[in-house]
Write a structure and sequence with these properties.
Layout (H helix, E strand, L loop, with lengths): L6 E4 L3 H13 L4 E4 L5 H6 L7 E4 L12 E3 L4 E4 L4 H6 L7 H6 L6 H6 L2 H7 L5 H8 L2 E7 L2 E6 L4 E3 L2 E2 L6 E7 L6 E6 L9 E9 L5 E9 L6 E3 L1
Parallel strand pairs: 1-3, 2-3
Antiparallel strand pairs: 4-5, 5-10, 6-7, 6-10, 8-9, 11-12, 12-13, 13-14
């Protein structure tokens, strides 16, 4: 199958992208952003999604902050256009190494080389690895819209099947992970390697200096319309 007809626009910076989204919506269009396209394009091909306009964020890769990886002792910040493969091959600090380790579960290398962190989060698939990791590590999504920038905590981001708190006229500019987890892992079950996960789980343990587990958190995917933090 082929996608339904749409118009194509290229954004040259974040302000331009927000303006295009606003203007297209005001003209009665149904615009969608496209970055790596690894989630949206298959849905359009099967006509599960039929946006009347696409706004391409590709040119924003020349904006350094959009592809930056900033690893600090207490937080890790990823630009919105950082790819899965960039994280997979990054030398992250022990508190955030689970992000690199988890990338082997994301599709195949061509998908990881094109797909973006922010794109996966905004897509809001309940089994997507980044959605589980966002809840596990207390991520904050920074989005820019006509009213300026705002921060969306991960526990307020996911609203259900492919639905998030990011508004249609907003562009995610960065994702900040605020909870280091040196004792963490993610695993999933799929029928074949590279297929969409049927169920997945992410775990982080709190371990004291003596090696005793004092607490932890678990996030599950594929068991509800959105990823779930288990109390």
């Amino acid at each position: 199958m082929k996608p339904a007809a749409f118009t194509y626009h290229r954004a040259h910076d974040v302000t331009d992208a927000v303006g295009l989204l606003t203007d297209l919506a005001a003209a009665g269009e149904d615009p969608k952003l496209i970055a790596g396209g690894q989630s949206l394009m298959p849905m359009m091909t099967f006509r599960l999604a039929r946006p009347s306009a696409l706004v391409d964020l590709g040119p924003l890769r020349r904006v350094p902050s959009m592809t930056a990886v900033t690893d600090g002792p207490d937080a890790l910040t990823l630009g919105a256009l950082v790819t899965h493969h960039t994280v997979e091959t990054a030398s992250l600090s022990p508190g955030f190494a689970v992000l690199s380790d988890a990338m082997r579960w994301v599709g195949h290398l061509p998908i990881r080389s094109r797909g973006t962190v922010a794109g996966s989060l905004v897509h809001g698939d309940a089994t997507a690895e980044w959605c589980l990791l966002a809840l596990l590590l207390d991520a904050v999504v920074v989005a820019e819209g006509p009213a300026g920038r705002r921060e969306i905590p991960a526990d307020e981001l996911f609203h259900g099947f492919y639905a998030t708190a990011v508004d249609p006229d907003e562009v995610v500019v960065e994702v900040r992970f605020t909870r280091p987890a040196p004792h963490a892992a993610l695993s999933e079950f799929a029928r074949r390697h590279g297929d969409f996960a049927i169920v997945d789980a992410a775990l982080a343990l709190d371990v004291d200096d003596g090696g005793t587990v004092t607490g932890g958190r678990v996030v599950l995917g594929g068991v509800a319309p959105a990823p779930v933090r288990v109390p």
